[in-house]
Structure to design on (468 residues):
């Protein structure tokens, strides 16, 4: 029997359009050790770890006539050098040049004829650094059978590992006749699926998106939160095929001081700072901001399975990431009142589910934020239309250094995908004393994305200087 894509996995293929590729990315920057860290070393590391990720050597094979969802098959022509590519920046090799390259790389859809992931080894960065840019399709990472590649290639130490012997041998894909026979057999058992697959073939995107929302489990929660359409503004527009990207590092200690001073969580402080930045950015665009003005954020949160033990690793990395809608009070001029509003809204969602605390998420092996951001994108990708204004996904990371081979990771910036009507997506993660923001924007609507990054710094300084 064929290894068929789940309804949720397939939905991300069905709704993908050239201007809105459905992949998640990350930008990891490494300090090059004295012994060097070259493309060949990364290639060997990835090749070794692929044994733990069989899906990364498989592609999605469509069924003739769209009689059933696609199936996963081994890529008999798998070429690691195609998926792990090499590039370089011209002098001076600044972060801004890197982010410009990231925007171009992440704007391009993945090749459907190959396994749905790519990685780029970027050389030429100033201060003897290299970068690893990854792209992984949302249909690939489910958090159960498959985690993000970034979680497996990063280790707590720089000790060299025995690469071992790669014994992988691809299996022959099923013939067209076998694909049809399997589809017909399943249709006999579940005739309703034949209608759903026909809808997908006809590109009934509304039906597909609705089905995906139900599969994630966030539909009921979302409908309870939505009492009106998301506020209109420049964050909602028809997304073009171009992208802009900006990354920003802030100090985790600053957010911890805000937590101690105001009795909130670090997550509350992060969202309050983003609210202040969005308020300033909207003001720079001349947008009217009365006291009641809000920006609706789609916020994916990890939750424990109902029968999972408290803080159990097995209950954390799974598909229990649910999307919630939070109205950010951008009309409020007082940063402390903004923080209070955010803390109250977040507490309501945290009380409604067995939501995962930051300390529990840090128990997940490897660099878990890579997988958690992929799961967050899956949850967000289930929504279509103008239900929200901006996607914000925050996942805590380890506070000890992690390594790819012998190279220490110095910085990490998440790259969250854009939906059809959303011009900005923000990924956040903490790592080794820093809080890293990755801002992915539409090239036309968010041409000033670097201004938003600057305003995050200003909003943080504003909140740090306040008292109750």
């Amino acid at each position: 029997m064929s290894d068929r894509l789940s309804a949720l996995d397939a939905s991300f293929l069905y709704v993908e359009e050239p201007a809105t590729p459905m992949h998640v990315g990350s930008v990891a920057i490494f300090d090059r050790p004295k012994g060097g860290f070259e493309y060949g070393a990364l290639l060997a590391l990835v090749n070794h770890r692929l044994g733990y990720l069989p899906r990364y050597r498989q592609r999605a094979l469509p069924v003739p006539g769209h009689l059933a969802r696609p199936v996963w098959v081994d890529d008999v022509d798998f070429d690691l050098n195609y998926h792990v590519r090499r590039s370089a920046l011209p002098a001076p090799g600044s972060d801004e040049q890197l982010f410009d390259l990231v925007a171009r790389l992440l704007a391009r859809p993945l090749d459907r004829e190959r396994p749905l992931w790519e990685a780029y080894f970027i050389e030429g960065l100033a201060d003897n650094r290299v970068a690893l840019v990854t792209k992984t399709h949302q249909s690939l990472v489910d958090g159960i059978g498959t985690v993000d590649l970034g979680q497996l290639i990063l280790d707590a130490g720089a000790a060299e590992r025995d690469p071992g012997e790669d014994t992988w041998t691809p299996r022959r894909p099923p013939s067209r006749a076998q694909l049809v026979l399997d589809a017909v057999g399943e249709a006999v058992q579940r005739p309703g699926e034949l209608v759903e697959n026909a809808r997908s073939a006809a590109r009934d995107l509304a039906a597909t998106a609705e089905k995906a929302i139900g599969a994630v489990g966030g539909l009921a929660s979302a409908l309870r939160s939505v009492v009106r359409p998301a506020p209109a503004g420049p964050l909602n527009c028809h997304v073009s095929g171009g992208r802009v990207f900006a990354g920003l590092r802030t100090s985790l200690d600053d957010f911890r001081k805000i937590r101690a001073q105001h009795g909130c969580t670090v997550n509350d402080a992060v969202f309050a700072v983003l609210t202040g930045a969005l308020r300033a950015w909207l003001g720079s665009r001349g947008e009217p901001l009365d006291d009641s003005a809000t920006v609706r954020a789609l916020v994916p949160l990890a939750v424990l399975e109902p029968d999972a033990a408290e803080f159990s690793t097995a209950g954390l990395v799974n598909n229990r990431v649910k999307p919630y809608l939070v109205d950010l009070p951008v009309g409020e001029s007082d940063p402390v009142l903004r923080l209070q509003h955010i803390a109250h809204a977040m507490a309501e969602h945290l009380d409604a589910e067995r939501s995962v605390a930051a300390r529990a998420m840090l128990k997940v092996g490897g660099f878990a934020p890579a997988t958690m951001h992929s799961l967050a994108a899956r949850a967000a990708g289930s929504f279509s239309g103008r239900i929200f204004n901006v996607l914000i996904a925050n996942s805590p990371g380890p506070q000890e250094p992690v390594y790819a081979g012998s190279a220490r990771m110095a910085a990490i910036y998440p790259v969250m995908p854009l939906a059809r009507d959303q011009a900005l997506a923000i990924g956040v993660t903490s790592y080794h004393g820093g809080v890293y923001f990755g801002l992915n924007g539409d090239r036309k609507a968010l041409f000033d994305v670097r201004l938003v990054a600057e305003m995050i710094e200003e909003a943080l300084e504003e909140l740090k200087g306040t008292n109750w």
Q: What stands out?
A: The radius of gyration is 22 Å. The first helix runs from residue 7 to 14.
